[in-house]
Each structure stands twice: as C-alpha cells, then as structure tokens.
Amino acid sequence: MAEKVVIALGGNAILQPKQEATYENQYENVRISTEIISKIVKNGHTVIVTHGNGPQVGNILRQNEEAKDFVPPLPLDVCSAESQGFIGYMMEQSLKNELNKLKLDREVVSMLTQTEVDPEDPAFIDPSKPIGVFYSEEEAKQLAKEKGWVVKEDAGRGWRRVVASPEPKSILSSQTIKMLTDNQVIVIASGGGGIPVARKEDGSLTGIEAVIDKDRSAFRLAEESEADVLMILTDVDNVYVNYGKPDQKALGCITLEEAKKYADEGQFSAGSMGPKMEAAMKFAERGGRAIICSLGQADLAVEGKAGTQITK
C-alpha cells in the first residue's frame, strides 16, 4: 500500500563522527542516504525528508567567530537557515540524480522551513543546548557579559554557549508541504528542527535564538502534513531494552502500550533514544505507524520487514 512517509535522517547521514566537514564528504554521505530514499519512492511511497544540522550550524558559528573582525556575525536563526539551504541543495540535487538512475520522473523540492515556538516556553528559563565552539572559562564569561549569552561548562571539554531547546508548536509551511505531497512531490523540509521563530503580540513573526529538537519537529511535521508513517533513522537497526546488558533485547513490532511500559521503566535515555521514542509514541498515539531503524534498512522497514515498529 502506498503511504506518505516522513523520513527523519540522523546527523550521520550528512557527516560521520570525526569526519572532516568538507563539502565532498558531506555530499557523498547525502548521496548514500538519497540512494536508500529513492528505493522507498520506487516502492510507491511519497516521502518528506527532514534532517539534523548540528555539526553544520556549529561550523557556521565557528566561521562567524573566526571572521567577526571582518564580517559582522549573523544571529543563530539565520545560521540555521543557512545550514538548511545548503543541506537542502545537496539533498535535492542528489535525490533527483538517484531517481533519474531508477528512471523515476518525480519532482523534488527543498523548502526553507520556519518552526514556531512559544517565547514563554520553560526551556528559555534554563537554556541547556550547547552550540558552537569551545572557550576557556575566562573567554566564555567575557562573551556572556558582552553578548548576553548563557555559557556553561561542557563535560570537562571547555565552556560553550548554551541556548534553549523549546517544544515546536507548529511547522509554518506544513499545509504547503501537505499540498505538494498530496500531488506526489517529494519535499525536503524542516531541517535541523526548523528555523526557530516566535510570534509577537501583533501576530508578526521574528527569529529567536534557540535550537529545536529535530525528532520532536519531525513528529509535528508528520502530524501536520497528515503522514501515514514517521520513520526516525539512527545508527542502530532497532531500539533495544536493557541496552548493553547480558539480557539486551531488540524490539521489533510492539504496541504503543508496550512502548510506554518500557519508557516508564527508564529504558530510553534522554541523551540518546529518549527523544526518538517520545516522538514515535506521540505519532502512534494519533493512529500512525512509527518506525525507528538504521538508514541501511529504511526501505525494508517501510514495508514492515525491519526496525522497531510502533502502532496503537
């Protein structure tokens, strides 16, 4: 059965850990990802692709920092937009090339996507998401004083700027995305969780300094575009319970009730599988099918033959 599938690519789909962030390395990783995505399209499904952008935004912020004496630095929401633009360009071009190899004539479009957040979200009270380069304690505290940043020590590696990671309220282009995908157009959207914006009292929008969790944003995108499947890709084939222990077990097809039981037991850590399972369970709660799997098994997982599958 043909389905509308939101595919949320993990950061490794664009840049592998410890890999040099050259355009060529990133494009090759994207090409491998789009090769798998094109198989899903060949099997008759319509796809919306979303992706992470953490390393890319980090590098753009570093470029800002290195060049600040010559070029005025850009705010974080603009850096997010910049990363969405160049990743979207790579994905759109690469996916079109892979579809051509399969002799599939399908339109592909990448969209700069804004995600609305609540400026009163509790996340703004205690920012916790590290971004950008490392500083000494003295440098970090001086920058905090000069720029009004919040800075924190990051796991013994140095000091970094931290920003809020608020809940996504709405994907602002979701109805356009729905209209396009209802007409079989493949859409690349909401990269890095979307460009964070907030609504002023008069209803106008303004950029805000924040980073949105891409898995939570992928759920919102899947919900608002009325997708049938939310597939979150990661670096393991399945979600595991008792991970790393002798009785470690891979989860295959499970019910929402089972997923909630495991979550209540604390099986999914906040820094790893927690946000993915949270997004998957929310989507299953609304009647959709949620999948967590590796990129290499994505085409099989859509057909129900691999990965962790969660349904109501």
Q: Can you offer a commentary on this structure?
A:
By secondary structure, this protein is an alpha/beta fold. It contains 9 helices and 17 strands. An 8-stranded mixed beta sheet has the order 3-9-2-1-12-16-17-15, sandwiched between helices. Strands 8-4-10-11 form a 4-stranded mixed beta sheet. Strand 13 (240-241) and strand 14 form a beta hairpin. Helix 7 (256-264) runs antiparallel to helix 8. It starts with a strand and ends with a strand. The model has no long low-confidence stretch (mean pLDDT 94).
Describe how the helices and strands are arranged.
Elements: E1 4-9, H1 23-42, E2 46-51, H2 54-66, H3 76-101, E3 108-110, E4 114-117, E5 129-135, H4 137-147, E6 150-153, E7 159-163, E8 168-171, H5 174-182, E9 186-188, E10 195-199, E11 205-207, H6 214-224, E12 229-234, E13 240-241, E14 249-250, E15 253-255, H7 256-264, H8 274-285, E16 289-294, H9 298-302, E17 308-311
Parallel strand pairs: 1-2, 1-12, 2-9, 3-9, 4-10, 12-16, 15-17
Antiparallel strand pairs: 4-8, 5-7, 6-7, 10-11, 13-14, 16-17
Helix pairs in contact: 1-3, 2-3, 6-8, 7-8
